[in-house]
UniProtKB/TrEMBL annotation:
InterPro entries: AAA+_ATPase (IPR003593), ATPase_AAA_core (IPR003959), DNA_Rep/Repair_Clamp_Loader (IPR050238), P-loop_NTPase (IPR027417)
Residue ranges annotated for the AAA+ ATPase domain, each copy included: 64-200
Source organism phylogeny: Eukaryota, Metazoa, Ecdysozoa, Arthropoda, Hexapoda
GO cellular component, one term: nucleus
Stored CDD domains: AAA (cd00009)
SUPFAM superfamilies given in the database record: P-loop containing nucleoside triphosphate hydrolases
Protein name in the entry: Replication factor C subunit 2
Biased composition (Acidic residues): 1-11
């Protein structure tokens, strides 16, 4: 085989499209703020609250996950944990089988009655034995009326949909919802845990600073 022929074969073996795709993904990642770029995607990458993560890991392995509430201070990984859990349970189906509503979404009673109910009724192809997941961030800011409606939706669609709520103050979640969920409590991370994570990111980003070394 001549050199030209072997070059042509090499080009066919390595088509340009996947290369472009991966470099586009890389560029997209490099433009992300570090808080998103380094958001853990697996349980093992989440710092702290090991017991709770372990418990969730058991639930996920058994595929038998109840409705959950993760309560704790801001910025300790509540939303991240729920997203990791959804990824384990649903794999690629995550894009169709998860409804994520955060504080920037309107979450009054109408949203529960319409958007959440509609999602719970939708037919989606899921891995065997798995459920669709509704993620409600900052659930403690939902009105009592919306929470009452949510409680009924939780009951009616328990065969098809699981709910994962994150909140700072679990006392603001009405009792009937609390009693239908496993309550997981996150505590604040220690300074040492946070520093270790920051140092790790600085190393990956080639940030050198005397202040950090000190
Ligand atoms: N335990 C953790 N381990 C590693 N990174 C973390 C952890 N907690 C938070 N982070 C970082 O902080 C970002 C925000 O975390 P996350 O949104 O999960 O916090 P939260 O507990 O949901 O906060 P809030 O109460 O404000 O919604 C993540 O993208 C990640 O970069
Ligand atoms: Mg959150």
């Amino acid at each position: 085989m001549s050199d030209t022929e072997s070059m042509e074969v090499a080009e066919v073996d390595a088509p340009a499209v996947p290369k472009e795709k991966s470099s586009t993904a890389q560029t997209r990642k490099s433009h992300l703020p570090w808080i998103e770029k380094y958001r853990p995607t697996k349980f093992e990458e989440i710092v702290g609250n090991e017991d709770t993560i372990q418990r969730l890991s058991y639930f996920a392995q058994a595929g038998n996950v109840p409705n959950i509430i993760i309560a704790g201070p801001p910025g300790v990984g509540k939303t991240t944990t729920i997203l990791c859990l959804a990824r384990i349970l649903l794999g690629p189906a995550i894009k169709d089988a998860v409804l994520e509503l955060n504080a920037s979404n309107e979450r009054g009673i109408d949203v529960v009655r319409n958007q959440i109910k509609m999602f719970a009724q939708q037919k989606v192809t899921l891995p065997a034995g798995r459920h669709k997941i509704v993620i409600l961030d900052e659930a403690d800011s939902m009105t009592d009326g919306a929470q009452q409606a949510l409680r009924r939706t939780m009951e009616i669609y328990s065969h098809s949909t699981r709910f994962a709520l994150a909140c700072n103050n679990s006392e603001k979640i009405i009792e009937p919802i609390q009693s239908r969920c496993a309550m997981l409590r996150y505590s604040q991370l220690s300074d040492a845990q946070i520093l270790a994570k920051v140092m790790d990111i600085c190393e990956k980003e080639n940030v050198r600073s005397r202040a950090l070394k000190a």
